[in-house]
Design a protein that fits this description.
The protein has about 900 residues and is an alpha+beta fold. It contains 26 helices and 32 strands. Helix 16 packs antiparallel against helix 17. The chain binds phenylalanine and zinc ion.
Length: about 900
């Protein structure tokens, strides 16, 4: 354990900065052994917000070697400043002054991948959230915004490409073989948006004509071997730029927009002004190396980072408690974009599933926090599904409440009012309120409280009065405003016209366009003129991130599955039905009864295959049973093995029952057509491969030849990977082994493909030995310093191979803990993110819960725990 425990930082302690930095001039002299960073800061006291403050200047900095400090050209002597672990204090400064600081850093030894570091042969930076302090002493906080000019100097042959934010304004070559490029960014920005790249890169170029007629140069920089993998990202970028103009009226604001792909990166990508840096897995694709899901991820992330130019960069966050201001809103924007480019219903289903499995679990665990947290120890731990996805849901609810037009008025006002500012979530909501002339006071609770609200609904039909009553009760003592989209299905499955009884429905209800605003602890709606008892379709489109309970009968679910006009609820009815059947099998298991699967489930899934109103993408989604992690999330006490056994049983019975039809479907869809990454083809491949993976679960018939054949004959990675995965995840170990071996031989020179190869093995759903994971960890293709490889093996193992991670002897937990301990010193952010699967130990059956806890205690006892790991482990053990 550490001698001094890391401290929490509180939102309530926020104070504006005492100084502002008008201009930031940086010079980077990059060498192999060290890099020298010279800064010249034009500073003044922040009299506006701190009238009369005459105290010292305190800058933050970490792991910097200080060479010299000058104030207004005068070298400071040792008694004029103090250097501490994380700060530099200058005792006396004037109201306005020029501060010059020289420091040295060692990017080549930076394994944390924050600040300036080396990825392969190139230099790159990652400054969000607090990485800039590893580059130079500075006011590293998002409310200090400055104009940056950056000169980068390096060896011209090793690093022909030198990039930073904004426009290149000057180039020089020196006799020494070094050269320099100076960049100037005309937009004020916080230092977390600073970026620098130096390397030997090739560039893919294109242009975009903005709505006002300006031409923007678009450039994607990659290592030479990847230049054939840039087309799709460029295409996605142009579509994003156009979409943001049309949907939000937002035009790009520089003459050049650059993307750089790097192999070593802690996250997906980063929205640095004019110079986005991407994890190569989120930007590089061609049909031979990337799957359809990789293409979809690239489209979404390119859009996400581009959209940050307005929601994040032009208008940024005042402090890191406001992180969701940019992330929640930007995720919402990229979700709208994805919905517009592809199937909106399928996108909604995927997002809701992510909320219900991952975010609800976070909300129920020791790291639960509000969308606007009120404290943290390490901000890097707060790049969470709550900040991102729940933050997106909250923005989505505002859109539902205001309507599309009102929401657009609100976003226009927000961008206009706060352009160039660092603001709070509250200011975002105020803009929405002001533009629409209404109050969202009660609604704001969504930002401030952790946890998932529960709404219990009961219904009553009055046969005589022909009324239908829905009663809603919400769990929280202080009620939320919850938009609940709903409909009532009549006898033949049609949506009934909803007429409210004004007198008997509880007061203050607003019911608009199918959306009911639940505002009180308990409320009742009475619908009149209902001739027969209807089936309610509740929480359509997943209109709020809540758990809604209504006691559906299986027949009602079958009815919704067949008729609900809301695509999300149609899918959800199938999920609820399957869940209910799986629960039933679990209780049969427990009581040692013969296992019986309700035949209605088989008929229902079977008839999905005959429906022509469902498109391929939707059908593929509907055929997949609820995931083990979703089932787990619905359980009071989690027994992964019992869940897996029941789910596998149902899946096998389904596979056997549907095999003949699935085979026909498979063969009908398995046509070669020249790979294109477009929605229609992707949906077709998705459905075909869903059918294939079912077929390989069948006990009757022998379908492995289909998989082997698809593995050997295809023109794209999607089909290749799907065949490989279906072999690995079914009982065909010989075929799986030989496919894995030949795959590796074919692809070992392509790191992104090798990562998928590692992941498909690490994530195996088949019971196996934890030693398999050990083998992957000592394979030549593994490298613990590369976050993508860690995610592929360790992350996938703990997150997807649940039966093995939860191996009865505790070996899975131990393996994870061993690796967290190794990563704690190498890369604390990555180490800390891997703690999540252990952190929910209290929810697991006793023996497993205790084993998980022991591993957490073992981690806690390590010397020199990083703040990142300390925060998650200590909160997991104490709460
Ligand atoms: N801001 C990045 C995003 O769009 C995420 C990120 C955070 C990347 C921190 C790197 C470090 O979502
Ligand atoms: Zn983001």
């Amino acid at each position: 354990m550490q001698d001094t425990q890391p401290k929490s930082i509180y939102l309530k302690d926020y104070q504006p900065p005492h100084f502002v930095i008008e201009e930031t001039h940086l010079r980077f002299d990059l060498f192999e052994e060290y890099s020298q960073v010279d800064s010249r800061l034009v500073m003044r006291r922040n009299h506006q917000q701190h009238a009369g403050y005459t105290g010292p200047l305190v800058l933050v900095g970490q792991q910097l070697e200080l060479l010299s400090i000058k104030v207004d050209g005068e070298l400071l002597t040792a008694d004029e400043y103090q250097v501490e672990d994380d700060s530099l204090t200058i005792n006396t400064v004037a109201d306005d002054f020029i501060l010059e600081i020289s420091t040295r850093i060692e990017p080549q030894n930076n394994t944390a991948l924050e600040g300036l570091y080396k990825s392969g042969g190139m230099f790159c930076t990652q400054c969000e959230a607090e990485g800039f302090r590893r580059i130079t002493y500075y006011l590293d906080r998002p409310d200090v915004m400055s104009i940056f000019t950056t000169e980068v100097i390096a060896d011209a042959s090793k690093y022909p490409i030198l990039l930073s934010n904004g426009n290149a304004v000057q180039r020089e070559t020196f006799a020494s073989g070094r050269h320099s490029v100076t960049w100037h960014d005309p937009h004020k920005k916080p230092c977390y948006l600073f970026a620098l790249v130096a390397g030997s890169l090739l560039v893919k170029e294109d242009t975009f004509k903005t709505m006002s007629g300006r031409t923007v140069d678009l450039q994607i920089f990659v290592e030479p071997q990847n230049i054939d993998k840039t087309d799709y990202a460029m295409d996605a970028l142009k579509r994003s730029m156009k979409w943001d103009e049309e949907k939000y009226g937002r035009e790009y604001d520089l003459d050049i927009f650059m993307i750089v792909a790097v192999d070593d990166f802690n996250m997906g990508a980063m929205e640095n002004k004019g110079l986005n840096i991407f994890n190569s897995s989120c930007v590089l694709a061609n049909p031979q190396t990337a799957t359809d899901s990789a293409y979809q991820r690239i489209e979404a992330i390119v859009a996400h980072e581009y959209f940050h130019n307005w929601s994040g960069n032009r208008v940024t966050c005042r402090d890191w408690f406001q992180l969701s201001l940019k992330e929640g809103f930007t995720v919402y924007r990229d979700a709208q974009f994805t919905a517009d480019m592809n199937s909106a219903t399928v996108k909604r289903i995927e997002d809701a599933a992510l909320m219900r499995t991952v975010q609800f679990a976070e909300d129920a665990g020791p790291m639960a926090h509000p969308v606007q947290p009120d404290s943290f120890i390490e901000i890097s731990n707060f790049y969470t599904v709550t900040i991102y996805e729940k933050g997106c849901e909250v923005v989505g609810m505002i859109n539902k409440l205001l309507g599309d037009e009102g929401f657009r008025k609100g976003s226009d006002l927000y961008f206009d009012r706060h352009d160039g500012q660092a603001v709070t979530i509250n200011e975002f909501v105020s803009a929405m309120e002001d533009a629409n002339n209404l109050s969202l006071t009660q609604f704001k609770r969504w930002y401030k409280s952790a946890g998932t609200p529960i709404v219990d609904v009961v219904s009553q039909y009055d046969d005589v009065a022909k009324t239908y009553t829905l009663n809603f009760k919400q769990s929280c003592a202080e009620p939320f405003l919850i938009p609940i989209e709903l409909g009532l299905l009549g006898e033949s499955g049609q949506d009934l016209e909803l007429v409210m009884d004004e007198n008997t429905s509880s007061k203050g209800d607003s019911f608009n366009g199918g959306i009911f605003q639940l505002t009180e602890k308990e409320q009742t709606l009475v619908f009149t003129g209902i001739e027969k008892e209807p089936v309610p379709s509740l929480l359509r489109d997943f209109s709020a991130p809540i758990k809604l309970n209504y006691d559906y009968s299986r027949d009602q679910l079958l009815f919704l599955l067949q008729y609900d006009s809301d695509g999300f609820n149609c899918w959800d009815a199938g999920q609820k039905l399957a869940l209910d059947v799986i629960y039933e099998v679990m209780s049969q298991q427990q009581a040692n009864l013969p296992l019986m699967v309700d035949p209605r489930l088989l008929t229902a899934y079977g008839s999905l295959l005959q429906r022509d109103d469902l498109d391929h993408a939707m059908l593929a989604k509907m055929l997949i049973l609820p995931s083990i992690s979703y089932i787990a999330e619905t359980q009071e006490e989690i027994d992964i093995h019992a869940i897996n056994q029941a789910r596998t049983h149902v899946q096998t019975i389904l596979a056997d029952a549907l095999a003949a039809d699935l085979e026909i479907l498979y063969k009908r869809l398995n046509i070669t057509q020249g790979y294109l990454p477009e929605p229609g083809q992707m949906a077709q491949r998705g459905l075909k491969n869903a059918a294939l993976s079912y077929l390989l679960k069948a006990t009757s018939g022998d379908y492995k030849a289909l998989a082997v054949n698809q593995f050997e004959n295809n023109d794209n990675m999607t089909d290749s990977m799907a065949a490989l995965a279906s072999l690995v995840n079914s009982n065909h170990s010989l075929e799986a082994r030989s496919a894995l071996d030949s795959f590796y031989q074919q692809w070992k020179a392509e790191p992104l493909v090798v990562n998928q190869w590692l992941a498909v093995q690490a994530g195996s759903a088949e019971y196996g030995h934890v030693e398999n994971i050990q083998k992957l960890l000592s394979h030549e293709a593994f490298d613990i310093k590369n976050p993508n490889k860690v995610r592929s093996v360790i992350g996938t193992f703990a997150g997807q191979s649940l039966v093995n991670f939860h191996a009865e002897d505790g070996s899975g937990y131990q393996l994870l803990a061993d690796n967290i301990i190794s990563l704690n010193t190498l890369n604390p952010q990555i180490a800390s993110r891997l703690v999540a699967p252990l952190s929910k130990w209290r929810r697991y059956v006793d023996q497993q819960g205790q084993q998980m806890k022991q591993q957490l205690q073992r981690i806690m006892a390590q010397p020199a725990l990083s703040k990142d790991v300390y925060e998650v482990v200590s909160k997991s053990l104490s709460l």
